[in-house]
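Slide 14.
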Amino acid sequence: MSHSPSLVPQITTDRDVYLVLDDFGRRLGRAWCETAEEDANRATLLRHLAEGQYLHPTRIVAFNTAEGWSRDATAEIADELRRRFVELEETDPSLLEFLERAARR
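Slide 15: predicted structure.
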């Protein structure tokens, strides 16, 4: 007999969630990127940005439904990335573009 995945989330709902608005160009436009539930955390987001997993990230939002808040976290994430990753010589161009855009906001 095959095993079906559980419908009950494995991760607690009382946590901060981070989502990225990515710009796919003029033809496709901007969209919120799909993210697995376990990957919607700050540490994974920072790693994915540093690895260049987004084409042109334009905005990052953070929210916590259990606590009832949401905010634009773009500048906060950009500041943290500047402190952590910019000194690396092989920084992905999409990350550098994101940092420049965030600084202009």
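Speaker note: The longest strand covers residues 57-64.
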